[in-house]
Amino acid sequence: GNGPTLIAVGQDGLPAMPALPWADRRALAEAEDVARAAGRRVDAAFYLPKALWIMRQLPGLFSRVRHFMPCPEYVAFRLSGIPHAVLPAPGYAPFIYGPGLVEALGLPGSLFPVLLPPGRNLGRVLDGPAHADEQGGEDQRVDGVQPLGVGAPQAQIPDDGGDGHVHHRGVHDD
């Protein structure tokens, strides 16, 4: 898996910088600050330390960020236009970005999209181009491609259920 890899999404809907992968350890000091605010241990691999690091170390770039989101959800965002993050289970919220903690760190809550449970209907795949690329060209969509649900205990596969909306069903070995 990709663990908590963070994408800083710019105002144009494209990554504002290369992704910060789960194994990136540059936010160690920020992890300590998040841990103090949260009252528990927080690893530098988590989203909030990385976002805090961007705010502190790259303020010019930070001012151009529209959303912070995990990389699989970024792919679904590009297909659907809906910013979100998947909450694998309710107990994970404090480890992703729980209520109140974002603001306590001085990060704008608007940069962190809604946490959705696995299996939630995300909506329709966008028709045609959704964003201009860096050269002003169009980002072409592939008709019929559905976003892939992620973050569940088992893999997720999309199913349009015959109604054109995306529904996620777990893949089981049985």
Structure at a glance:
25% of the residues lie in helices and 13% in strands.
Uncertain regions: pLDDT < 50 for 5+ in a row?
129-174
Biggest β-sheet strands, sense, barrel: 2 strands, antiparallel
Query: Any idea what the radius of gyration is?
Result: 17 Å
Oligomer: single chain
The average pLDDT is 77
Shape: globular
Structural classification: alpha+beta
Strand order of the largest sheet: 1-2
Topology of helices and strands:
Blueprint: E1 6-10, H1 28-38, H2 47-57, H3 59-62, E2 65-70, H4 71-80, E3 85-86, H5 93-96, H6 101-104, E4 115-116, E5 156-159, E6 167-170
Parallel strand pairs: 3-4
Antiparallel strand pairs: 1-2, 5-6
Please provide a written account of the structure.
The chain is globular, with a radius of gyration of 17 Å. β5 and β6 form a beta hairpin. It is 25% helix and 13% strand. The two termini are 22 Å apart. It has 174 residues and is α+β, with helices and mostly antiparallel strands. The strands form three sheets. Strands 1-2 form a two-stranded antiparallel sheet. It has a two-stranded parallel ribbon with strand order 3-4. A two-stranded antiparallel sheet has the order 5-6.
Features:
single chain; globular; two-stranded parallel ribbon; 6 helices; 174 residues; 25% helix; 6 strands; disordered C terminus; alpha+beta
